Amino acid sequence: MARIVMKFGGTSMAGTERIRNVAARVKHEVDAGNEVAVVVSAMAGETDRLINFCREAAPLHDPKEYDVVVAAGEQITSGLLAITLQAMGVKARSWLGWQLPIKTSDAHASARIEDIDTTGLIAAMSAGEVAVIPGFQGVTADNRITTLGRGGSDTSAVAVAAAVKADRCDIYTDVDGVYTTDPRIVPRARKLAKVTYEEMLELASVGAKVLQTRSVGLAMKENVRVQVLSSFDAPTDNPIPGTLIVGDDEIGEDEMERQLITGIAHDKNEAKVTLTSVPDRPGAVANIFGPLADANINVDMIIQNIAHDSGSTDVTFTVPGAELARAIDTLEKGKDVIGFSTLMHDTKVAKISVVGVGMRSHAGVASTMFKALAQRGINVQAISTSEIKVSVLIDEDETELAVRVLHTAYGLDAEDAA
Length: 418
Ligand code: ADP
Ligand code: ASP
Ligand code: MG
Fold this sequence. Notes:
Shape: globular
Largest sheet: 8 strands, mixed
Helix content: 25-40%
Bound molecules: adenosine-5'-diphosphate, aspartic acid, magnesium ion
Distance between the termini: 43 Å
Strand content: 15-25%
Structural class: alpha/beta
Low-confidence stretches: none
């Protein structure tokens, strides 16, 4: 007998028939003698629909009320799954975020889980009742509903798994594992049997939305055994049908050596900002990035040009597209202190990243990238690197082409699909 957390994403929960399929899968685990908690997403498209209602009601709205609205999608699917399980003769009960409770910070719309009270949950599970938990939602210390940021149900699942000390956290989605890149863009992408926490964290943070970044960080910290698998494939006896997220120690030396690049991700949600004629003197960049940090705006890639003869320089950087309006507002307000001449911005950009722990011991990864892109006439507008990642900023229209070209350049294409 094992204690498992099963998480089902939006596509898996979209409609009565699919929820029935999910319930059958849950029943399969219960019949095998396992204790089960299920974390569910809202039906695909539902969260977008609810967010739109908020925008229509008022473009600038109270995040506390936004959370009340958008958390509703998961409330519906958790109740529906409990009903469906009961109809199949499986004991089941839903537990909303405030009922467990799942305590979070008060950062509405992107709250962090602080604590999960497992008393009721563990009692129910050990009495053979399936606990159905809506993902994405929690409650603050003063009892207001919160949500965890887009894709947050993955984080709910990992947090529940850590809290109940589950043997496994199975993330069921609409693809059968983590691939070398988004299989919807590159049909020749290869499924990875294993990927390290560190690589998955990096891949997720640069746009591979198959897992929410925070869920991977939490799994790494709490040592949760996470597997990504498809809710549409028939259950199998294979203990690892999908992709297992593992520690470095579980990836053999040979595998590490063989795989220089683990995966490629893209992100079309960045915006590029350029400030021209910024004074080239100490403190100038602090004047730009200090106020952005104070406004909680995340800056990612940064380039500063060589100074002009006039003693000034151009500074280019990226911010999340959703934060562009606030970033412009913050910079315009600080224009006199920063001393720039013009502010230019562009949302038609995409960030393409290659990730792999093999990069630590191999030179030439970045130059392979630049060569491959140059051969296809793709212009690189900005570059950033970390120990296991190289990212470039390009024109958004060239995203798919760039991902495909790089996938081939690093030898990641599946052999049978050439
Ligand atoms: P869910 O609703 O189940 O949470 P998501 O849409 O959030 O599903 O995540 C699954 C999607 O992630 C897939 O449909 C796929 O298009 C996308 N994806 C992006 N990068 C990858 C990758 N490297 N491997 C697998 N899927 C990926
Ligand atoms: N329903 C939420 C979203 O679409 C959370 C999730 O599905 O993980 O972002
Ligand atoms: Mg998701």
